[in-house]
Design goal:
By secondary structure, the chain is mainly alpha-helical. It has four helices and no strands. Pfam families: DUF4735.
């Protein structure tokens, strides 16, 4: 999962991969893998939130970014 998150970071956090990125951090962090708890990652995630609603919006081409990630980690 760390390899996946590092690839997502390297690719500039494409929108279609942001959810997976956050899920990996949450799940691995809860399981005791503190190397997933990086302040720069938290700052990036908080920057994706809409300041008024607190929600995360949709931009970009989700399908394309997911296919790109699958190819790069296989």
């Amino acid at each position: 999962m760390m390899k996946v998150n590092q690839k997502i970071e390297e690719d500039g956090y494409p929108f279609g991969q942001q959810d997976l990125f956050m899920e990996n951090i949450m799940f691995c962090g809860m399981c005791g893998f503190s190397d997933f708890l990086k302040s720069k990652w938290l700052k990036k995630i908080l920057a994706w939130q809409d300041l008024e609603t607190g929600c995360f919006g949709k931009t970009g081409n989700d399908e394309k970014s997911i296919l790109s990630l699958k190819k790069s980690i296989n």
